[in-house]
Amino acid sequence: MPVSEATPTAPTASTTGGAPLAILQQVFGYPAFRGQQQDIIQHVSAGGDALVLMPTGGGKSLCYQVPAIVRHRREQGVAIVVSPLIALMHDQVGALEEAGVHAAFLNSTLTLDDTQKIEREMMSGRLVLLYAAPERITTPRMLAQLDSLHERGLLSLFAIDEAHCVSQWGHDFREDYLGLNVLHERWPDVPRIALTATADDLTRADIITRLQLQTARVFISSFDRPNIRYSIVEKDEARKQLLRFLRDEHEGDAGIVYCQSRKKVEETAAWLNDEGLTALPYHAGLDADVRKRHQDRFLREDGIVMVATIAFGMGIDKPDVRFVAHLDLPKNIESYYQETGRAGRDGAPADAWMAYGLADVVNQRRMIDESPAEEEFKRGQRSKLDALLALAEAHDCRRVRLLAYFGEESSPCGNCDNCLNPPATWDATEASRKALSCIYRFHQNRGQRFGAGHLIDVLRGKVTDKVTQYGHEQLSTFGIGADLSETQWRGVLRQLIALGHLRTEGEYNTLELTPSAREVLKGEVALLLRVPSEAPKRGRTGRVAKAGGGREKPAPIALDDDGQRRYAALKAWRAEVAREHNLPAYVVFHDATLAEMARDQPGSLDELGGISGVGAKKLEAYGREILRVLGEAG
Length: 634
Ligand code: ADP
Ligand code: ZN
What we know:
Number of domains: 4
Number of helices: 28
Distance between the termini: 36 Å
CATH topology of the largest domain: Rossmann fold
Bound molecules: adenosine-5'-diphosphate, zinc ion
């Protein structure tokens, strides 16, 4: 964003005080800190290093933005924010400028003229925050500029966002992050704060060593996202299930549908469009400008469904993503949690929905088996996949399992499919033995192997060409499973694969017993399976977000008819402003802030300033307009 040199900086310390809470209230318009924000901000403002682990939507940005303002007001100069996401810098900076905080970014999209202007703002120390990608920061030119700032005592802070990019363990690894150890080596007295939503121990340890944060204080927040409802359904006809989910529960909502392959992304997006939804594809195979256009539309327009591979999502801070749906199984719980975490950053009810089936298990297992990685690495991946499969097959609270995976203890949440609708189970021990012994018989027969489809035909006593071709109607196991439906059999096989008693091999995914199958065959292992069922429809209202979790969650506000009218008028006004400023609407005001205005009908600037999300700068810039819009809407 082009900056004018006349852009006013935030009110000075002498007018508002430089204490963190005063800044939160004055600049951002929020009444109170959440969770550990206050401790983190105090520590960093005082010059300490910090590593912050907080779930998506937890409020990481303020953890470095407030210290940057505090230190700027103490004339400590410019905070440098390292962010991997050039495409999002414009909006991040726009949001700060809207709040009256002088910020800018340096990246390759700027003209020479704008670049020079921003560099002057930076070198003068007037800038509060400067965003740049790591590869920019480590250029000789920038290093020299930072040296000069440092010599004059104007280098206030380094914030390293998405710090897990430094770790090779995640799929977000960025080579350029490795160069960031220069920050500590070159300017050891400048405080650093590294932030990430990736919680696992390996990544954490990696961040600490690679960024040399050994002496940093580590702040670990609860990873619970109480407003997200987790549901995992058994795949039957995935597309239809998805459509039903979208129509019944998310008509007109913005959300993300994750698929594994580019092809499936394209097909699913096209199909959803045919069904009358506005869906856009996003994957790494699309041109950069198409990707940017789709991302911008998702951020700026209402109710867009983004159908995407995992290439989409990091750093997307759209607060009102109402659902994240998975049509394919992610790699592990870390990925699942990070992807689903993009829903409901605003704290209002949101859904994480996944359809999962036998083929998913088979595919994920095969991808690991066939990858060229070291055996030790594969073992790690397999055990991570197993944890995800156990989550998918679970009959008990999904959240308890998710949080336990991240080392947190909790009790049943009341806001996941299994809590709301405890699934019936059936004893599949006998059925499992039948399936395994049938596979054993195939094998006895000249070592032959078959896939799930044929096995189920034999178990159910179906006479197909293939059955007669191999003489399988002669087997003692032919027809012994006629009492179960094909879907039930698929469930049994899926669980046997998920639990590692069966594995699949080769191009045709033929089934093979593993050593542990023997225990099942001997009846030593009891298997309890969920009865396949579609979650019953539920309305959009009456969803209760779990209380607690250490964070205040704004409830979605109920508005009467007049309130609704005022709300609509405010949204129309906001759309106008957002267009003029070329920013997403939520950067101007969040929905929750507008809803509160519509409900409380503030009659003066003073009253308006008391609404959460209305800071001093926005009050000054928009206050009168808002009062006018409210007055006209009546
Ligand atoms: P993260 O980067 O951790 O995913 P953000 O920094 O984007 O999360 O914050 C998520 C949302 O919560 C944002 O819309 C932000 O404005 C809001 N938020 C953060 N801290 C507070 C607070 N103390 N009070 C009210 N809203 C907050
Ligand atoms: Zn639950």
